[in-house]
Amino acid sequence: KVLSAELAAEERLLAESRHAYADGAPVPLPEERADAEKYRTRLARLRQTVTVHEKNVEALKKELSAVK
Questions:
Q1: How far apart are CA 61 and CA 58, in angstroms?
Q2: What is the pLDDT of residues 7-30, one digit of tens each?
Q3: What is the 3-state secondary structure (H, E, C) of the chain?
Q4: CA terminus-to-terminus distance, the chain
Q5: How far apart (Å, rounded) are the C-alpha atoms in residues 55 and 38?
Q6: CB atoms within 10 A of CB 21
């Protein structure tokens, strides 16, 4: 039951992260319009967040399948 709750939470976080990442083209924030490096840094951080959540979801699914 705990793993199922963790999986649901991770899937929600993954969906939020993917939405923020916007397929690699999020709208630049006002301060990023004049500083491309800030935009690239945020883009890399968003991509990393998506990857972490994807790996967490995969690991939780694997763990749940081993329990059942």
A1: 5
A2: 999 999 999 999 999 989 999 999
A3: CHHHHHHHHHHHHHHHHHHHHHHHCCCCCHHHHCCHHHHHHHHHHHHHHHHHHHHHHHHHHHHHHHHC
A4: 11
A5: 26
A6: 19
